[in-house]
Write a structure and sequence with these properties.
Immunoglobulin-like; mainly beta; disordered N terminus; 3 domains; 358 residues; 60s Ribosomal Protein L30, Chain: A
């Protein structure tokens, strides 16, 4: 059967603004502060959820009376004791105390002592502090399969859950679900029941103690018009005449990359190879892979520095319907696709076994 057109440029919908593909839309530590009034004379505010190397947990004490000889002792649950002399505090005055703590979550018992005139004041309270190691999160782009509803990630934090939202090309929500991971980390496959054609995917990864990180993924694919490469039957060699056609295709690829603007940094080239029906299906599959690899190598050797992937489909998808064992040069062809993730499977791309040209 003749392969049908299967790709179109994806228009980025306005709701997402100008977010870079695979760049974090925003990240934030949620619920990072708590506050309380203790004893009426002192209140505190605590930054209790921080990232190591970026900031330190801070306890802010505020006096609600004039205090003198003020000291604070903070005992961490592992036995570490931190003491600090604060001296005199005016009514309404605040002072910051940096909490000593390694990565992890610890309970702290605090004791504040001081005087109000001749009266001795002792106030006790406790609190938890979480210090997270720096977040290292990455999307495994080579294994994304939006058609199957799958985006693998790698993360060095314990993930509680991932919120998943998928939008179509008109900005309509087609998936809104949450996947639980129960504190797992490392390689995680974020998955959902695929519906429709996704134009954007939002992943909100909840990790640690109330922290989250969000990605916006805007997939796009652009098919490059082909100067038909006519391979000899059984051959994957590129002669001078075919090389001249590849030069024109290379120039079109460069023009298309320039038109992508900010998205250029994420673009890859995909080369799909096909054969006619001469020979066995198994041999044609191998031959088409060699042809796709041959074209990919030509592009790399002639100035295309972007990542290049190739795959063969043999005689599975014919441009021109023919009987078996028919030599038809229009079926000995290639298709070129620019995109930021693997092209979706379709009639023309019946499976996804892309190999990266090294």
């Amino acid at each position: 059967m003749r392969g049908q057109p299967f790709l179109r440029p994806i228009v980025i919908i306005a709701i997402l603004g100008s977010v870079s593909v695979f760049s974090p839309y925003w990240s934030q530590v949620a619920d990072a502060e708590e506050s309380a009034i203790v004893g009426g004379e002192v209140s505190y505010q605590l930054d209790h959820n921080v990232v190591a190397g970026e900031e330190k947990p801070t306890l802010t004490l505020q006096a609600h009376a004039s205090l003198s000889d003020v000291q604070i002792e903070i005992k961490r649950q592992d036995g570490h004791i931190q003491s600090q002399t604060l001296g005199s505090l005016r009514d309404g005055q605040s002072v910051d105390i940096t909490i000593d703590q390694p990565v992890g979550t610890f309970r702290h018992d605090a004791t504040v002592q001081g005087r109000i005139g001749d009266e001795v004041l002792t106030i006790e309270f406790d609190f938890d502090v979480t210090v997270s190691s720096g977040l290292d999160i990455d999307v495994v782009r080579d294994e994304i399969d939006l058609g199957a509803g799958k985006v693998p990630i790698r993360i060095n934090q314990a993930v509680d859950r991932v919120e998943i939202e998928v939008l179509d090309g008109q900005g309509r929500q087609i998936v809104d679900t949450t996947q639980s991971f129960g504190g797992r980390q490392g390689r995680l496959d974020v998955q959902w029941e695929s519906e429709g054609d996704p134009a954007a995917v939002r992943l909100k990864v909840h990790y640690g103690a109330g922290s989250w990180y969000e990605y916006i993924l805007e997939p796009f694919w652009v098919e490059i018009p082909e100067q038909v490469i006519n391979f000899e039957t059984g051959s994957a060699s590129i002669d001078e005449e075919q090389a001249a056609k590849l030069e024109m295709t290379r120039d079109r690829i460069r023009e298309a990359i320039d038109e992508l603007g900010e998205r250029e940094a994420n673009v890859r080239l995909y080369v799909a190879g096909y054969t006619d029906t001469v020979g066995s299906a198994a041999n044609n599959l191998r031959l088409s892979t060699r042809r796709a690899q041959s074209i990919a190598t030509w592009f790399r050797n002639h100035g295309l520095e972007i990542p290049i992937y190739y795959q063969g489909f043999g005689q599975q998808v014919l441009a021109v319907d023919t009987p078996d064992q028919t030599a038809e040069e229009r079926n000995r062809r290639a298709v070129y696709i620019l995109g930021n993730v693997h092209p979706p499977t379709s009639e023309q791309i019946p499976h996804s076994n892309w190999q990266r040209l090294r």
